[in-house]
Amino acid sequence: MDQNQNIADAPPVARSAIRKVSIRLVPFVALMFFINYLDRTAIGFAAPNGMNEDLALSAAQFGFASGVFFIGYILLEVPSNLALHKFGARRWLSRIMVSWGIVALLFTWVQNFEQLVVLRFLLGVAEAGFFPGAILFLSLWVPAQFRGRILMLFYLAQPLTTVIGAPLAGWLIQQHEVFFGLEGWRFMFFGVAIPAIVVGVVAWFYLKDKPADAKWLTTDEQVWLTDALDREKAATQKKEHGHVSARFAFKSGRVWVLSFIYFGFIYGLYALAFFLPTIIEGFQAQTGQTFDTLQKGLITAIPYLPAAVVMYFWSRDASKRGLKTWHIAGPAIAGAISIPLALFTGSPAATIAVITVTACAIFAALPNFWTLPTRFLTGAAAAAGVALINTIGNLAGFSAPFVTGFVHDWTGGYEFPMFIVGFVMLVSAVLMVLLARSNRINPATVDETATDAAPAVDAEALSAAADPKGDAR
Description:
- By secondary structure, the protein is an all-alpha fold.
- The chain is built from 21 helices and no strands.
- The longest helix has 35 residues, at 253-287.
- It is globular, with a radius of gyration of 22 Å.
- It has a single domain, classed as Growth Hormone, Chain: A (Up-down Bundle).
- Residues 25-440 form the Major facilitator superfamily (MFS) profile domain.
- It comes from Microbacterium ureisolvens.
- The chain crosses the membrane at residues 21-38, 58-76, 92-111, 117-141, 153-173, 185-207, 255-277, 297-314, 326-344, 350-369, 376-396, 416-436.
- It is a multi-pass membrane protein.
């Protein structure tokens, strides 16, 4: 099957199988991701709504507490994904959700900076492996030629987390007097933690590990999906000389370069996620207006609704044309230019408009980026490779809030920290272009003892990995 084939051109059994997976699995896994992202970024909503004041946190302390989550996350990322490969996604993703829900619940009663740091670290340990595990899980259900569409639908959960989650967090903060008499930010932590535990339990019974286990697929649909995925796996193993071990992923030059590209996107993403609510808090002094908590949540959500729309159409274009270098490098350049300009616009409305461009850029690139690793990795190598890329990328989850907070305390403003964000995203764009050019000069080869060459980004070069009938070019 051609890499550029549209779902409408596929055989009827393929269309029905992909449609059922899109309806039965993707929304539920996206809901899990929604809760995951909301729980890890809830601290950003709590900070300007009483937490920083109650716990006497400086900007640097808040940045460190926000980022230390990723230290625990990184330490167990790869082992967790290998465990998912061994024990199955249903059991492991359920275990992860219940674990992080319990830890997230404890934030309700945090009393000081030290306790906040410990809980953020433990939250990272509990969540380790969820995101790459979800990516790997979906890749085990959908052949590569349709994977960009599925990952786009899954990734819609992330911008929608802020579109829905920011006003929800604001509403929860305002309801504290109705429930338990907790401070607003404490009740907000309580309110976003409970769904993780509930959905984690449901996932144990709802998810299935492979198409053959899904009673909601017909026999023909099960056979088509299983055969297509088996052919793709066999073709990938043959192309990569049978190297499907975790060791191969760690030796892969492609994996490492993709890891550093992802680092830049995540640096920009979390700089926005953790500090945008605080920047919006500064609008009050700038305009003389006073916003209530719900209004702040709604303002925080503004950039992410256009981001979801842009991500949808950008991913559709990549699916229609075939993935091109500029589908990933272009948004990185747009984000690199826009984010430093956001604080020099002179008005809150213009600031939000420029931040919206940044959010659109980041989310346009991410689902397309995640179609790349599983095109040349399979088996344990895919589990380890996806986890490694996410691990290196999430180093930015620690460094972005910490560096941003530290430099803010040092300079007294957010201008210089945002230039750093722009520079890091620009590096991602440059690496993406170099990756593609390197492949055109040196066709991909794999050697047992050497680092592999860079992967093609354009569709014709990717088709050999995605299509078992494709010819290497």
